[in-house]
Amino acid sequence: MALSIAELSLVEQRVANDSPSTGVAYLLWLFLWFVSAHRFYLGKTGTAILQILSYFVLVGFVWVLIDAFLIPGMIRAKKDEIRHNVVTQLSAAAN
């Protein structure tokens, strides 16, 4: 089933409203890196806890630096997830 222009517009509006902010994610990364706040904010609870635990073996510190490059991809994945959920809801409502 193809979505109408109005429905596609609604999907993109929901994605824009519901998706996490890149700026907030980077601020959390910069100031609260030691509690992996950016990963909690982006819905990556399991890896946030794993990252905190890995600080005790020094791997976590490298991981935090690598996260600076991974944040945009995590946000893109979250937006895709939101987009998929809204399209699924619209398709279910149409049937």
| Spans where pLDDT lies below 50 across 5 or more residues | none
Anisotropy-based shape: elongated
Helix-strand string: HHHHH
Quaternary class: single chain
Q: Work out the strand percent.
A: under 5%
Question: Taking all residues together, what is the mean pLDDT?
Answer: 93
User: Main sheet?
Assistant: none
- Which structural class do you get from the secondary structure elements? mainly alpha
Number of discrete helical segments = 5
Protein architecture, described:
The protein is built from 5 helices and no strands. By secondary structure, it is an all-alpha fold. It has helices spanning 5-18, 22-31, 37-41, 45-54, 59-94.
